[in-house]
Request: fold
Amino acid sequence: MNAEQRLLDAAALTVYRLNGQFLALGDELASPAGISVAWWQVMAAVEHQPQPVAGIARAIGITRQSVQRVADILVDKGLCEYRPNPAHKRAKLVAISEQGEAAIRRIDPQHEVLARRLAAALGPADFAATVDTLTRLAAALDSISSETPVD
Reply:
């Protein structure tokens, strides 16, 4: 295994660990509001602007089918609603409802506490640099995902 392969493995294992940590923290934050972290992810994706299911899936990196299942539950529970999509007749937009906004507001105080604690642990500059690096990593993976492997 060469150095690049070791770095790729280390990056992947670290991201898998981070994913587990974020999901556990998300569940802790979301459960008092009566929602799951999966519901929160979808609601957060449409909090500021309605999106089609496919757009939500791209934004949060999960399958369209998974987002569709969660969106249907959120609509059934009154936390989101479907709206007509002027750009596509069949692909409705998912929008957060007033009830969904209220659920997110219930999460905000503890979310703020966690964000402050993490910023204090890392330092504001390192926290921002970490987010920038993770964003660049995701963009790099997007850019190479469609490339054909070279022999």
In short: Residues 25-135 form a domain with the Arc Repressor Mutant, subunit A fold (CATH 1.10.10.10). The chain is about 70% helix and 5% strand.
